[in-house]
Amino acid sequence: MKNKDLINDRFIEAFMYLLESNRIKTKKEFADLAGINSPKLSEILKKRMRAGIELYQVLFDHFSVRYKFIFKGELPMLNSECENAHLNVHPSVHLTEAKEHIEEYKSKRFQAPTVVTVDNGGQENIVMLDAKAAAGFPANLDNPQYFKDQPTMSIPTHHFKDGSFIALQTTGDSMHPTLYNHDWLFCKYLEDPVNNIREGYIHVLLTKEGVVVKRLLNRIQERGTVVCQSDNEQYPSYEEKLDNILQIWKVEAKLSFILRNESADLNSRINTLEGDMVEIKRLLKR
After folding, report:
1. Residues 155 and 83 in one domain
2. Which of these, 107, 112, 95, 97, lies nearest to 194 by C-alpha position?
3. Domain span holding position 87
4. pLDDT at position 99, please?
5. What single-letter DSSP state applies at residue 178?
6. What gap in Å lies between CA 50 and CA 52, rounded to an integer?
7. Which of 93, 122, 211, 229 has the most CB atoms less than 10 A away?
């Protein structure tokens, strides 16, 4: 079981103990204290969602639950059960420590990009990974030689001055008609993806299995996942767990050698369909 699930299970264990011991009168009372609705709390208790910081805050501030029980599994569960007086600290201390654990827990999976070369002005070059090289990207995050072996470029515009960038060549048709097979994507590394994912925009995920290009919906705070959406309707949306993500890059621009006129293509298909309908009508009149 992953650490996230263990923490969530201990939240549920603490909640049910407080409820059964009548320290929490009703689920609605607890939900109101946390500023969420009762259905959301029910989803968390059924393990369909993960508890957020607002729920831990209620445990620490109102019910003397120890943060070390939630985050480390150390007994006893409640401060009032501790024999040593120094453990009965002000709730704000627990909340501060809890937030530190949550932030470490959320960010520790994300690795900083490997800086390989810089231009004459000291600006990082943009490493270019073609389709073949991009397939090996996740496995070579800690391999400087892998990046040194790739071509580099620089783009003299303000869009590429601040941050770390990489150019990736796409494969497949899941993002048609926005992106085509072998388009180049210029991507900016997200240092704090938990807060900096741009809702509904195209991002590149480096997962343990490979490289994924999708539009993202940020559901990290709610349930520790991002929702991955394709522009091609033939590909269903799905959720990717934070545990499985190594890095997240936001797509800033693209370079494409396919300059199709989508409107003309659509008109052509409509004309073909109308021609087929005329032929069908002619056959039916026989």
Report:
1. no
2. 107
3. 3-107
4. 52
5. T
6. 6
7. 211
